[in-house]
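2024-03-11 09:14:02 INFO receiving multi-entity request
2024-03-11 09:14:02 INFO entity count = two
2024-03-11 09:14:03 INFO echoing inputs for audit
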Amino acid sequence: MIRVVLPPHLRTLAQVKGEVTLDVPGGGPVTRGAVLDALEARYPMLRGTIRDHVTEQRRPFLRFFACERDLTHEPPDAPLPDAVASGAEPFLVIGAIAGG
Amino acid sequence: MSGVRVLVGTRKGAFILTADGKRQRWDVSGPHFAGWEIYHMKGSVADPNRVYASQTSGWFGQIIQRSCDGGKTWEAPGGGMTMEPGQMPKGESNKFVYDASPETGKPLTTHQWYDGTQHPWEFKRVWHLEPSLTDPDTVYAGVEDAALFRTSDGGKTWQELAGLRGHGTGPKWQPGAGGMCLHTILLDPSNPKRIYVAISAAGAFRTDDAGKTWKPINRGLHSQYIPDPNAEVGHCVHRIARHSSRPNVLFMQKHWDVLRSDDGGDSWREVSGNLPTDFGFVIDVHAHEPETIYVVPIKSDSEHYPPDGKLRVYRSRSGGNEWEALTKGLPQRDCYVNVLRDAMAVDALDSCGVYFGTTGGQVYGSTDGGDSWAPIVRDLPAVLSVEVQTLA
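2024-03-11 09:21:47 INFO inference complete, emitting structure
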């Protein structure tokens, strides 16, 4: 079970409170791409809000943190830390602090 | 009992103002979608309980919201939770992808950029939603970078009417300072195959075959800010309005100049007349008097506030040229707000109501065709759009 922490606006949009817990299918390593696939499968209204519909590029004002590390620039198919894969630590989607 | 529902989009959420037919006491609902930019909301004429909203954010992109109960509750069409985790998504919620397929027209991938080079078309947001006049599930969306999309399933899926970008002048289109947006969509109640759109800064366009083919309709527009002031495209049209009983008569507020067309846009003539400045954004038509039109003059394209600090709506009862200032109830000193292009609307009650919103967060209403005004709300976030539904 993977734990995902969304920014407040996306929690409102997905109508969830607190963390989201997801089953990520597949027997291989847990990757950011697989986590986002599972997240969007369960909450289709989030499609396009974290990554582009077509290119799957990350939206510029969002970043990905876990285990006190910035994983934003890791490839989407790179394995996430074991602590994320085991559910010990959450995968965080962070909105940039900017704007008015 | 008749009533009015005013749909207000702001920089930080949506607000819905409702009143009975007297329009004296208002109920304010909101903020809906708090913290998000609501570029536009509009209700369906075919089903007034059906309302669509464009919710957008620099962080999270574009969301389409739909209400089936007049704005009390909302959903993202196609975005409902799938009950079995791990399934592939069934919805196509919020997906706007430019059509570049050879089967539906010549692929068009670039337009002119500020420096004159060609630049890829990139979707940014929906500026305007225009529900069909007959089908509540069919809606047109004007987007930035400029293109026209349509849904026929209540907002779940959107398809581009690619003939607009592909008709020939698309590579010459260039963004204005506010972006290259398609902001005006007019459906013709007498001819379902005729649609007008306007784009900043490309101009006005018309289709007579339901969106397959398009042509520029900018003859008579004169714009000093482009190399050829009378060019076929390149004009910064801010807004076009028309009365439903006279679909061939169009009124335009351009970057500079107020114009009218009496032949469905084939030709235009200036009717700025005695306006204190012919720069502005909004323009609208009285619900029962097709030659009575309203504008809010703005001092200039670099200052974007009313002349002399006086917020004045100007009304012409002769379809332009002769204008009178409407000031009763509006601030006549120290007022430096702007009124953006989609932020004026009228109701269809016997005594026509006129409404507009400002970047200062006020929404003003008039129940007597503009003779007098009063604020309905004073302290909203900056208002981006105002639409009105007249309820039976």
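2024-03-11 09:21:48 INFO post-check: The longest strand of chain B covers residues 383-391.
2024-03-11 09:21:48 INFO post-check: The radius of gyration of chain B is 20 Å.
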